[in-house]
Amino acid sequence: xxxxxxxxxxxxxxxxxxxxATWLPGVDVVAFGGDYNPEQWPREVWDEDIRLMIEAKxxxxxxxxxxxxxxxxxxxxxxxxxLDEVIERLHSAGISVxxxxxxxxxxxxxxxxxxxxxxxxxxxVRLGFGSRGMASPSSPEYAAATTRIVTALAQRYGRHPAVxxxxxxxxxxxxxxxSYDEYSVVAFREWLIERYGRIEQLNAAWGTAFxxxxxxxxxxxxxxxxxxxxxxxxxxxxxxxxxxVALLRCYLRERDIIRRHSPGIPITTNFMATSCPSVDYWTWxxxxxxxxxxxxxxxxxxxxxxxxxxAADMTRSLAGDRPxxxxxxxxxxxxxxxxxxxxxxxxxxxxxxxxxxxxxxxxLFFQWRASRSGAEKFHSAMVPHAGPDSRIFREVExxxxxxxxxxxxxxxxxxxxxxxxxxxxxxxxxxxxxxxSIDLDFHRQVESYYCWLWNEGVTVDFAHxxxxxxxxxxxxxxxxxxxxxxxxRRVRDFVTNGGTLxxxxxxxxxxxxxxxxxxxxxxxxxxxxxxxxxxxxxLRKQESVGLSDGxxxxxxxxxxxxxTAETVLSYADGxxxxxxxxxxxxxxxGTAWYVSTDLDAxxxxxxxxxxxxxxGVRPSAPATPGVEIVVxxxxxxxxxxxxxxxxxxxxxxxxxxxxxxxxxxxxGFTIPAGRARVxxxxxx
Length: 684
Ligand code: GAL
Hints:
7-stranded mixed beta sheet, 18 helices, 9-stranded parallel beta sheet, alpha/beta, binds beta-D-galactopyranose
């Protein structure tokens, strides 16, 4: 068996790590640390911070995220003294810096000098100060002020040896996204002119003949603010697209300044991969050097660990071939949910290894030390209010050591043969008013298909519907409501070339501008699916319908006429009784399945077993309830992460080296209840 070095390494101490070229320069270990806000603490605490960071093997901290007011206390007057000191202290301790631009929280002087830059809600409320959140993305005052502070920071620290990563802004899209201020209206019009060229084109795309919404001039167009009744959905969809672009422009402005002054240092901005409703990360991912993500458990849900995996898989998919980094998660409870459920012993490690196992090369937390004041004082941290003599800090220290043992796995990749199509345009459009049912829910659909595959132990990527799907054997299209011509073509080519497609209801319904596609419904997919939908049959609240195999559908049913598809299951009762419910269509060398109601993950497993078998996609390991297994690989080497979410020990068959404990075995390993383990195996 090939030997690997499983000793805990610190940055710069390892002889020859295989580090991807696009990783943090000079960092040859898994990044570990968190947001560090020393400005909230006196100097004595800074000394203890550095000592504890060294103890915990922290090697990367994010600083300055909310420091604008201290760095530029009066407009144009800078005070970098304290930040110089913090960076020097970290540098002397061998801790790298992820330096943030503080533009997610402009100072008080900005708000009082430039009230017109304040964002305006759809209902017309101009937002006040006293919280956090950026200005209107289209405000020239915000552009000027951010250019000044970012230039000053980049000039001062751009070549500092401690700075290994730039962190632009914080979570674009939250808490400010769509703004209905005057600057945004003007910028929206400019964006529309660029998109449509001629006003007649816009009238056609928006279907303005309906309800007499015709426009003669661009100046007549407003942001789709609250009106007497439902506002034109095409206009709203375009405003969502425009907002994404307006936010992206803010990021690009900062990024390009930093690039000029800080050559060779990667730049990121922290995404919220599956939970940001307003940013289309497919358009952002190519613009960052390293994809990074923030993830917080929806801890009131019993499947919150599955949702974590989903976010990690999405982040990996956004990163493509590049390494990625978990920029924020919590050591225990957050403070902003209705009931902030604390993590139980070892959960912090399981969560961290779930991200690592799905491809992350860095695990960071929000935040290093729990705040005493302000809105987040009940949020957990690496150093909790209880101090370092606490279970949480001990778990943090253990994690730091464990991650240090994974250096040899840097650059390994997770390979998936199945993909779920994720489309922000469909998510935005489905969320608008006056759809056939308020139960149409993009997230719920994606989640149930994801959970099904997670339960089967199948690793999935996410893919943009217009991307080349050739590398996959199984593609799932839940609620692909907006089907552009290209997306329909991609899906058709995928099936024709031998792939297995599973489409869920209300897919392929409208084109790019939210207009119903011509031809039998669903216009974008009927030929691929071999059927037409004669009637949507949304169900009443809490109503369900029976299927011919005894499973029950919720929320939705359809009256379907098959053309070339065969019926796999039909409706046994309810408004669609006798109509096909689940169908299967051969097309070219592949197969397209259609599921016309909402089944939970377990039912999907039974109904779609045939589809999974047909696709040839296999689980990473036999599915075992409560145990998550995922593989990172490179050539003939494999690192299998086992996460035992259950209360009983689990036996993982197969010899190898368990990296976290150094144990070697020729037949297998016990994965203790609640613990994470990583087993290295080689095919040599
Ligand atoms: C994140 C944010 C952090 C912190 C954290 C609390 O969304 O980026 O600054 O507020 O939430 O969970």
